[in-house]
Amino acid sequence: MTTTSDSRVTDSRAGHVVQDIDTDSAQREVILDVQNVSIAYDTDNGPFVAVDHVSFTIRRGETFGLAGESGSGKSTIANAILGLLAGGEITSGRILFEGTDVSTLTGEDLRSFRWKSVSMVFQSAMNALNPVMTIGDQIVDVFTTHTDLSRSEAKAKARELLTLVGIDANRISAFPHQLSGGMRQRAVIATALALNPALLIMDEPTTALDVVVQQEIIQEIQDLQEKLGFAILFITHDLSLMVEITQNLGVMRKGRLLELGPSLSVYRNPQHPYTKQLIAAFPPVSGSTPLEDGSSADAAARVEPEAVISVRGLYKAFRQGGLFSRTENVAVNDVNFDLHKGEILALVGESGSGKSTVARILARLETPSAGSILLEGTDVLQTEPKRASRQYRGTVQMVFQDPFGSLNPAHRIRHFLERAVVIHFGRKSRKEMDGILAELMTSVELDPAFLDRYPHELSGGQRQRISLARALAAEPRVILADEPTSMLDVSVRMGVLRLMKKLRDDRGISILYITHDLASARFIADNTIVMLRGSFVEGGASAAVMDDPIHPYTRLLVSAAPDPERTSRYEKDERAKTRATIAELIANRTPTAWVKAVRTTADLDRTPISPDHWIATGDASATQTTSGATT
Amino acid sequence: MTIQNQLQSLVDEEIQEFGTPDTSSSQRRRGSLWHRLLRDKKAIFGAVVILIFVAFALLAPVIFPGDPTNPVASGSNPPSPQHLFGTTAKGEDVLALTLWGSRSSLSIGFAVGLVATIVGLLVGLASAYFGKVVDDILSVVTNIFLLIPGLPLLIILAAFLPPGPGTIVLVLVVTGWAGSARVIRSQALSLRGKDFIDAAIVTGERPGYVMFREILPNMASVVMSTFLACVIFGIGAQAGLEFLGLGDLASVSWGTDLYWSNNEGALITGAWWTFIPAGTCIALVAFALAMMNYAVDQITNPRLARRRKAKKA
Question: What is the strand order of the sheet A606-610 is part of?
Fold first, then answer.
């Protein structure tokens, strides 16, 4: 494949940048031709143009990607192809599928078109499946509605399909809630593929899933595509993932197609400034970090050896069940770490790994079952066991994940900052307060004019900056950031991360950065610790951990992070082997924290690999054998 | 993704840029609960009816000076130009009794509503905010009061306590607060789980501040409809108690009007004018309050509002 910066042309009709289409697939027949399509929604304030003169084609067996943020119109196009535009209307152009204009289809033709020719996989598998029907029945329904198969034939077909997407055929009578998120999405894919459609539309099919599962599903889809030869329209905001799996892609923003071309050459050589911005928003997990400001390296040197917060033997179990059957769910199991002055420490793990619980315990929103939190040598759980003192609150602040939930909708922005100042520094005169608030707003790069707005008038990125400003108002020494960017649009994500970094650099604030995204951890954090089912398994300098992962779980995580430049695939059976090893490690783990007294720094159960890289002692021996096998 | 979400995110993107706020966006803010209530037909209807009754109650001494229980004519006259609503067996003017009666009924009804809502609010908020043991204990107490058959408790309490308006209010609050505590607790519980409450705690806010300044403003509509429901309960239950002769029979209220009407054999003699006015007033006030309640619900519950919009379109 050639990179084609010189051969780019500007499509005079649509006005977007076009790079040469991938030549491999160029000979194949076009099955979907979107010609100059505009779509408008009728709103109270007149028509709203959601898609503005967009043109692209998809060839047989090709994977085409549409990238863009929320509101870019990418899902609207998908809905238009299926004739599912509720309240919207195609105002210009047409969508041809195998030569037929889809908007002319009605009644029975449309019904059969929707499943036999084009089918769709939605983002949320739980909502796409009917909770009161078994997954088998839902697939059987597709056959009995659209084909002449009898129920028993359909059932046999359904078993076949489930096996095809990697679900045990015996689970045919399982209900959706009995399946994991990944399994459910596989079941949805099975239903979508039931009638062997020529085009499969996937609207953010893996966004709600953990990275490892996401990678598995993506590989499953690619294998199926090789076998069955359908084309895919893949919609996502995650550009790295998209480049990895698509041949051609289009970048959309505010309804307009900005750039169109072969995925890798768009990624390596973006032409439109917005595409560049999008690509910059996803730093790769492997290789050298493309840091234009180069702040990471020298900042790491600035980390001082003095620990602000030390956590020893932290253990948290949640009680479940009622009066008679109590079970304990261990969320955090014997966790030990030091957060140093001016350090950004990332805690990485999948959902359910207990990383957020660690942050909530440090924020004193949860009380640990055992263990100690040492703030400059004092065990705060001993000195203030019930409720955190205001002095503690003034030292440790938190930024929450959901920018739409963490600001009380009933108050103006001024309220949040003013309260924080009043609580920690007492009442001020009107003039003095205005000065302090303006300074806070400026420090998070917002106009002080926002102070008199309500939260709902602000965008997600702006709200997250307000949350940061609120935390800063207490002039804390530690900020706990619980996935602060995971719910933000990609283009503002980097801005918030950079801001956090800047606050560390300027004020020497220590940050505990909780995330599931390895790439962003590598980008922002000096040190990274990987968490699995409540325990730390590996840690060290971010680059060391991600370039040379030792623990099988870390290896799995690193391998699953979307990487456009990936050349080798993590093979299925190898992955299964790794998973088995990890399961064994978890099973062998002993819940010891109850009996352990306050730990000393010397005893952290860590086996060093290099000066800035360690792995959990309990897992070290088991790992040596597997790492020998896989490398 | 629903169309609404899509459109909202499209709109959101318009103010994506940092730096200065977009001035047009502040006009998009939905009006407050009060502003929207003032534009709602049902709410206006309810408010007007209530205001008319309040006006009658206030003006009763002006329109009918003197004690309304003084006989003004011979007994049991049907409505006539002199006595628009007729007279009772004792010769009292029914219109005067009805207007004077609204004073007691409305004031006790609103007092019961207010006190029961405040008790419910305190119990519900504390229960939801502190959780665990506090919630367990308060929930048990609330459930006990919910489960105790209301009418017998009312009768026993009313029979043992000295008669008077204070007793009536006390008795009705004791039997009426549990329902509102239940509703407020469940609403507060869902707000308690929101990040902004945790965020306020992390900022360093004390429990009292979080309960009343962070949680409470977000449940104005629930508190309002709870209050209205408690007022309806108060007016109805007071009338019921007094009709049974368990209230303060020396006072004049719609309940005592009904009690005397029944006592004087109005149903047997066919003196319909002695009980229809009081009964109609109770029904009208309850209806007006229910309309306001309905309007609050419709305005604050987006799902109902959307359905209404869809119907119009």
Answer: A396-399, A478-482, A510-515, A344-348, A527-532, A535-541, A613-616, A606-610
**Least confident among A175-179, A241-245, B22-26, B66-70:** B22-26
- Residue A304 is predicted with a pLDDT of 62
Which has more confidence, A112 or A574? A112
User: What ipTM was assigned to the predicted interfaces of this complex?
Assistant: 0.76
Q: What is the CA radius of gyration of chain A?
A: 26
Quick one: A346 exposed, middle or buried, by C-beta within 10 A (0-12, 13-18, 19+)?
Answer: buried
Using CB atoms, which residue from B20, B197, B204 is nearest to A390? Answer: B204
Query: CB distance B18–A461 less than 8 Å?
Result: yes
Percent of the residues in chain A that have a pLDDT greater than 90, as a whole number: 17
Report whether CATH 1.20.1050.10 matches the domain A9-98+198-280.
no
3-state secondary structure of B214: helix
In a domain, B175, yes or no: yes
Chain A: give the shortest CA distance to residue B199, in Å.
6
Q: A-chain residues within 8 Å CB-CB of B203?
A: 393, 397, 416, 419-420, 423, 470, 474
Confirm whether B311 is domain-assigned.
Answer: no
Domain A296-630, CATH homologous superfamily name and number: P-loop containing nucleotide triphosphate hydrolases (3.40.50.300)
Number of compact structural domains in chain B: 1
What are A107's two structure tokens? 């009644």
CA distance A557 to chain B (A): 28
Judge whether B2 lies within some domain: no
Here the CATH number for the domain that contains residue B243 is: 1.10.3720.10
Q: Which domain holds residue B201?
A: 36-67+86-301
The confidence score (pLDDT) of residue A630 equals 39
Q: What is the pTM of this model?
A: 0.79
